[in-house]
Specification:
The protein contains 5 helices and no strands. The protein has helices at about 5-40, 50-60, 65-80, 85-105, 110-130. The chain is elongated.
Length: about 140
């Protein structure tokens, strides 16, 4: 198999973060909202939170901005080295959500920290998918 260039790696990284990132984030939000009552954690959620479907769609649409910011932060590393580490992925996800929540305020700002942690986990998962697929080194 012919090796791919760093430009191609960067393109796939950008596409993966901007397209799959919001989907996986929204899926995680839906799972958390569905499982919160099962694990007796529903009291930790804001009382004015919309139903699961509306919250999931809202998180999917809103997370396109931080996903793009995280991808923009990681692409220069991929162009230079052909890869990035899991710490860089997690940091890019966390900082991107923090920046996006300042630019585009959250409907429930008390969930900012949880969403930042979730973004870091999703970014590390996306990095692992890229590594297993052989896209990044």
């Amino acid at each position: 198999m012919q090796d791919i260039s760093n430009s191609q790696r960067a393109l796939w990284t950008f596409l993966m973060f901007t397209l799959a990132g919001p989907f996986l984030g929204a899926l995680a939000v839906a799972g958390a909202l569905i499982l919160a009552p099962v694990f007796k954690l529903a009291a930790l959620l804001p009382p004015s939170l919309p139903p699961v479907g509306a919250s999931t769609v809202t998180s999917f649409v809103w997370s396109a901005i931080p996903a793009t910011l995280a991808a923009i932060a990681l692409v220069p590393m991929v162009l230079r080295r052909g890869t990035f580490g899991w710490v860089a992925a997690a940091a890019a996800g966390v900082v991107a959500v923090a920046a996006a929540s300042v630019i585009f305020p959250l409907a429930h700002p008390e969930l900012r920290f949880v969403l930042m942690v979730l973004a870091g986990i999703v970014a590390v998962g996306l990095r692992q998918i890229l590594a297993v697929a052989g896209i990044i080194r």
